[in-house]
Amino acid sequence: MTARLPSPPETVDESPKDEPDRQFATTLASGLDLLLAFRVGEAALGNKDFAERTGLSRPTVARLTHTLTELGYLRHDPALGKYHLGAAVLSTSYSLLAGLHIRQIARPLMKALADRIGAAVSLGLRERTSMVYVETARSTEQIAFTPDIGATLPMLATSMGRAWLCRASAHERDEVLNRIKLADPAAWRRYVPQLPAIRSAFEQRGYCACRAEWRDDVYGFAVPLARALEGRVFVVNCGVPVEGMKFAALESTVAPQLVALVQELETLLGMR
Fold first, then answer.
1. Dihedral (Cα; 251, 256, 259, 261), 10-degree rounding
2. Given this model, what pLDDT does residue 15 score?
3. What pTM was computed for the model?
4. Domain with CATH 3.30.450.40 in the chain
5. In which order are the strands placed within the sheet that holds 152-154?
6. Is residue 174 within 8 Å of residue 9, measured between CB atoms?
7. CATH 1.10.3720.10 corresponds to the domain 26-91
8. CA-CA 20 to 30 A from 94: which of 14, 124, 172, 196?
């Protein structure tokens, strides 16, 4: 039985560790933070943008962007004076995606559901304090919400993130919530008090929902797999265009089909 979510923590331990982690490569971490600074829809960033988003000094950013460009992770555009992500970023992620065999198993199930309900169905897992899509299927390219592989979405404001929180171990969950409190205190104050009710609803229904809280044009429903797979909690999410539809009507139609999809996926994965 999954442990019940505790009441929202009143404080977070922000004190430094007694001893620094001598194995932690700060320069490497800073370089990765630069690559993660790009947001969906952004083609290029300059050194000033990197510095503002990472908190690093401009000289440090300049050294890192030069190094990452030499290695192929960034591509410099002289006309703009900015940087694009390089092809090396794709090559590093390919091995991860290719090794996630759940994607191949889940894809036809996801596509069938997407076509039946005219929506987008995605598979995701946690990345730091966000969720990231690792597979997605859409009924049509014309729907307003078109998630794609590699795109991230917030943990607390989405059905996928909430489903992850409901299935994750207490240790993982508390660690993520503490990080969110430090990184995004506004989101923490708004959503964390709702978590006990979200958890209670999940225990009764087997899924989590989002009433257009993240995007005002999409209702979200999400179901986590019954247990971790290779140490990771996967979640199947369904984003349905609002388009004047009543939430209750969509919930009664979509949520049971999503729960059934995950149960079938668990059977194919040998979890049942």
1. -110
2. 42
3. 0.79
4. 100-268
5. 152-154, 130-138, 120-127, 235-241, 218-224, 208-210
6. yes
7. no
8. 172
